[in-house]
Design brief:
heterodimer, A: mainly alpha, two-stranded antiparallel sheet, 11 helices, 72% helix, B: 412 residues, alpha/beta, globular
Amino acid sequence: MTSGDLLLQQTINGLSLGSMYALLALGFTLVYGIMELINFSHFNVFMVGSMIAMLILQAFGVVGQETVMTGLPLVGVLVATFAVTMVLCGGIGVGIERYLLRPLRSVKGPAVMITTIGVSYVLFNIVLLTLGTDAKNFPNPLPPILYNIGGAVLRLREILIWVIALGLMGALTFLVRYTKIGRAMRATAQDPDAARMMGVEVDRVVMVAFFLSSALAGASGMIFGLYYNLAKVDIGFAAGLRAFTAAVLGGIGNVPGAMLGGVIIGLIEAMSGQVVGTAWTDVVIFGLLVLVLVFRPAGLLGRIAPNKS
Amino acid sequence: MISRRTTFKVAAAITAASTIGIEAAHAADKVIKVGMSMSFTGADADSAARTASGAILAFEEANAAKTIKGYTFEFIKLDDATATAGQYDPAQAATNARKMVSDKAIVAALGPQMSGAGKAMAPILSAGNLATITPSSTNPDITDPKFAAQYKPNGKAIYFRTVATDAFQGPNMANFMADKLKVKTIFILDDSGAYGVGIADAFQGQIEKKGVKVLGRDRLDPKAADYAAILTKIKALNPDALYYGGVNQAGVKLMKQSYDIMPKMIKAGGDGIYGGDTLKGAGFPAVDGWYVTNASPHVTEDPKASKFTTAFKKRFDVFPIDYSATCYVGAQVIIAAAKKVVDSGKEPTRDAIRDAIGGIKLADSLIGPVSFDENGDVTNKVISVFQVKQDKSKPLDDPDSQFKYDGVAPAA
């Protein structure tokens, strides 16, 4: 491998990692943008998503990496699994919002955020007690197709991850920018009281935000499984923390910022593994985050919002 | 005519009666209580269960044979893994050690399974003068006289082993890779745990002495998901082999991703990635071809051990691993020590058993002759090498049929 190939390969690695972080970061940003709430249950909705996807794929008869599908059956199984995983995770998000967070909406202070941490642990422990702590061999029906670009290798599943991530991000951007509910979301984000006075159903907007955010977490949980062939009860914390960092880096509350942040964190992770050593990756990522926040306290694309109160 | 069902009933009745009989006899016996702290949940749970079962079998056999008149063995299992760690947790291991020390009825212990747990437990056990025999923790520091102030502040050896240490496991594997596998260049990784760093350091020291070029050394975060960056770097350096010092949590992810990135490279590790958890977590084809070592003689395929393996299979319905045998022998040492104390007319107290263990010599155990040096290390040190070779006719998560014995690694 020449150093050019190496750079290309690490970029491919970084982009795959980055698209996963970006999808997850979108969920943080979406909820924060509307409610100014850091939703820590997102960490483990992601983990539950990968477990749900694993169980569905197993129900389709996919075992380990040994069942390889092609053509229409492959597309069908993947689309069905993505759809069901996203809907179920979205449902979990809506349930969390409706029954655990809405009753606290009028409470001031960090109570709601602490509740989301609690919910996160509840989800963690439910999976822990039902599926156990061992590393699961995530079923993967993708054929091991790869393309050589010079000395670098591009795998089918990397392309798939990029396409799915880009598609979902595009759909979300369209939804927020050009649809009625999107306008309602933006209005609520700017000023919930004024939005309510203009006839926006704020409760519904919040619920939609939670649904979308959790559905994206589910999708990214499934992508995680397909990419690493692994599902484990503790994956939520490491990936969630990186994604949260990505959201802050890009400017929390800002949709394109979350995507940018995710990709940047993914690329930094790959490059620092190459140049400095993986033992230092966290130091590099969080060092950079501190630097960015010193010079741009609202993140790369964020703007300092006027105080709503 | 006696129907089959009645035969069953009769048999069941007889069994029930005899069980009650044994219990009645036991009730009159005094109890020798042994604590067992291992990682019964988490990334290494399967190995823990198989290892601990070795001791359970030994104690049950001793109880059934009434090896020590008037005494029966009882054991309690403590889990040193936590959900947040996902594997052994040194803090939980320390708690377990305190629990065992404070329970005056516990006079000896078995375990821990992991060196990181052992480092946390040793000072506490030393303060309580509670001897433990570890069947699988191999980090040499714990019994090294250099670190005596840290791990045995009380001065007396309390950490005994029925396995060799990584001072042998690492270097002997280095010899194997340099001599048998003809490796000329290598990259070394560890999982930043006590065991992983120690074995990787010991390995690196010896392989450098053998003239093999070490192209780099890096450290994996066991909680991170992605090792593609470092593996891509390794692929570009193109070493002959990769050596990993560490346990399953990082190990299975490393196996999966290194298979994707460099499927043909020679890959090897220590006893931390031997076992059913490794096979289950990494899965085929990723795990195929990996070399691993065990810091004990290979006994489960030895015809001389067939009595043990058959009894084990019958009792637990799974096949033993080699560390089931080291744990069985560890329990035998405790039984022999307790017997020596009782035969000499003394009470089997914690102090008496600790003093006795150091002098125990088993001439012909499952793992060969067993005796301990003044630090508590087993004197007969053997490192066995295995390679994963998929055997589709057997269960894919059964270590005994998927890890093929490759001989003894040459001593340094």
